[in-house]
Design a protein that fits this description.
- By secondary structure, the chain is α+β, with helices and mostly antiparallel strands.
- It contains 16 helices and 15 strands.
- It has four domains: about 25-205, no CATH class; about 225-370; about 375-445, no CATH class; about 465-515, no CATH class.
- It has helices spanning about 60-65, 75-80, 150-165, 205-215, 220-230, 240-265, 315-330, 340-355, 355-370, 380-395, 400-405, 420, 430-440, 450-455, 465-480, 485-490, and strands spanning about 1-5, 10-15, 30, 40-45, 55, 95-100, 100-105, 105-110, 115-125, 130-135, 150, 175-185, 190-200, 265, 290.
- The strands form four sheets. Strands 1, 2, 3, 5, 9, 10, 11, 12 and 13 form a nine-stranded mixed β-sheet that branches. Strands 4-6 form a two-stranded antiparallel sheet. Strands 7-8 form a two-stranded antiparallel ribbon.
- Strand 12 (about 175-185) and strand 13 form a beta hairpin.
- The longest helix has 23 residues, at about 240-265.
- The two termini are about 30 Å apart.
Length: about 525
């Protein structure tokens, strides 16, 4: 393996298990975030993970990184991606944990940071750069009371969901692999340790900016903002106020992301500001969930006793979080104004940019929902039609994914194709009344039923990561049978395809699924 300690420096050869006959990881090097300096991070090796083994591996992520997929079968793969080899790295090339702060459940939590995540470095391939991070790599200076470990259960869930979200077309961090170990880890019960190798262009969060604002480190705040602009939003440099333009990019990308979440019934579960990506990515998969029966008030995180992060609250919380980001960036705004005006004008500018969330989110969600119900054109009353569907779905707890998928089978001419979706509603009369209104609306569309169904099936997934599917894979993995993890991952890589051999994965959840709970404990 070759490892370069900086973006443009000589390679430092490290003898290690990743230099194998199958190939090498020779494009891993120091990233541009690390070049910001020690005020942003702490370097340390990962804690040893005893006798690690591979639980899951994503070949398409390996290909994205320029890695030979055959590496996953080499003896040193699990050792490397558990962080065990980092003990032998030069001190100035060690992985790092970054510091940030944030609001958790609406309360300022002060300094947080990567309490169990270590960034190995950055990979450049095919003109793109990605950071590789080990989640579960051991204690760091930011672990507070935590043990720095992740467990097999949550690691499998993150691996599966990050890949599922990507193939749904939703911006997300990715997961190269999961490695496990028999090392015991105590959560609500005794579990075993695991590490997820996460992949992202950047792991910078809203909380990074909040941290340096709270500590009155305007110099570091500016360096961080410059890093994000230069690396990801270079067009902001042409704006009258580059830092305000950066806020605008975060507003727009976050609005788009939440619209995508809402359109597939995804609940994040813990939308703290330290779990919000500056790039508008889904990040930090913890107590997430795709809804089965639709409930606008659904809470997927049983630690969220007040329902702050319920499904219907996600747009509002995203907007609130963006206010926190704006406050963190505030010292950088308004440099074009004279000193007497700067403070007031900067606040006004920030408020104006934040309003862009509302003007972006609503149309983005409306466009997605129109596509989900198969409307090619826009007519007055479309919003009311969709909202009425949600009302009766909520009243009947109709399955979210199956309702929209089966709606494609309904005919615009008669009720002959209603049964697959109608049978999801206990109140058949309420559905029939809505279906009649829907058919009347479809009469103004030029597409025939087949063309409309094809379009709807390209935006309404048949397969999502339901909790019971993940739980089945987890239980088998606890017995060292990882076949279901890979089988399920394979199904989720083609969420819009019929895949008749996996029809059972698209069915209603079994009765026992209603007792499943997920929490912040992972």
């Amino acid at each position: 393996m070759s490892f370069s300690p900086c973006n443009e420096g000589p390679s430092v050869g490290l003898s290690g298990p990743m230099s194998t006959a199958a190939g090498t990881i020779d494009n891993l090097r120091e990233g541009s975030f690390a070049a910001l300096g020690t005020v942003f991070l702490t370097r340390l090796p990962a804690a040893p993970l005893p006798a690690p083994y591979v639980v899951g591996f994503a070949p398409d992520v390996a290909d994205m990184l320029g890695f030979d997929p055959a590496l996953a079968g080499t003896p040193g793969f699990a050792e490397f991606f558990s962080g065990n080899t980092t003990r032998d790295w030069p001190s100035d090339s060690l992985p790092y944990a970054s510091v940030y702060s944030g609001h958790q459940f609406g309360v300022w939590a002060g300094q947080l940071g990567d309490g169990r995540a270590l960034t190995l470095g950055e990979v450049e391939h095919a003109g793109e750069r990605f950071e590789l991070q080990l989640k579960g790599g051991g204690r760091t200076p930011y672990s507070r009371m935590g043990d720095g470990r992740a467990v097999l259960r949550s690691s499998i869930r993150e691996y599966l969901c990050s890949e599922a979200m990507h193939h749904l077309g939703i911006p997300t961090t990715r997961a190269l692999c999961v490695t496990g170990s028999d090392q015991p880890v105590r959560r609500e019960e005794m579990e075993t340790a695991a590490v997820v190798t996460r992949v992202s262009p950047s792991f910078v969060r809203f909380g990074h900016f909040e941290h340096f604002y709270a500590n009155d480190r305007v110099d570091a705040l500016r360096s961080l903002a410059d890093h994000v602009i230069d690396r990801f939003y270079p067009s902001c440099r042409q704006a009258e106020d580059p830092y305000l333009a950066l806020l605008n990019e975060a507003v727009l990308s976050t609005a788009d992301l939440i619209a995508q979440w809402q359109s597939v019934g995804f609940c994040h579960g813990v939308m703290n500001t330290d779990n919000m990506s500056i790039l508008g990515l889904t990040i930090d998969y913890g107590p997430f969930g795709f809804m089965d029966g639709f409930d606008a008030n659904h809470i997927c995180n049983h630690s969220d006793s007040q329902g702050r992060y319920a499904y219907r609250m996600q747009p509002q919380i995203a907007y609130w979080n963006l206010f926190c980001l704006a406050q963190g960036l505030l010292p950088l705004f308004g440099e074009r104004y004279d000193e007497a005006q700067r403070g007031e004008r900067a606040v006004q500018d920030a408020q104006r940019v934040l309003e862009g969330f509302k003007t972006r989110f609503a149309p983005a969600l409306e466009t997605r929902m129109r596509a989900k119900v198969g409307l090619e054109t826009e007519r007055e009353g479309d919003d009311a039609l969709v909202n009425k569907l949600f009302e009766i779905m909520h009243a009947n707890r109709a399955d979210f994914t199956l309702t929209f998928r089966n709606l494609s089978k309904l005919s615009k001419h008669d009720a002959s194709g209603d049964a697959p979706v109608r049978d999801l509603f206990l109140d058949r009369a309420a559905f029939d009344a809505w279906a009649n209104d829907y058919r009347a609306r479809l009469s103004h569309e030029t597409r025939d039923d087949a063309a409309r169904a094809d379009a709807m099936n390209r935006v309404n997934p048949k397969y999502v990561l339901r909790n019971h599917l993940a739980e089945t894979a987890i239980q088998k993995a606890k017995e060292k049978d990882f076949s279901e993890v890979e089988r399920l991952a394979g199904v989720l890589r083609h969420p819009f395809d019929e895949q008749p051999e996996y029809e059972a994965y698209a069915g209603l959840p079994p009765d026992w699924a209603s007792s499943l709970e997920v929490s912040c404990s992972s």
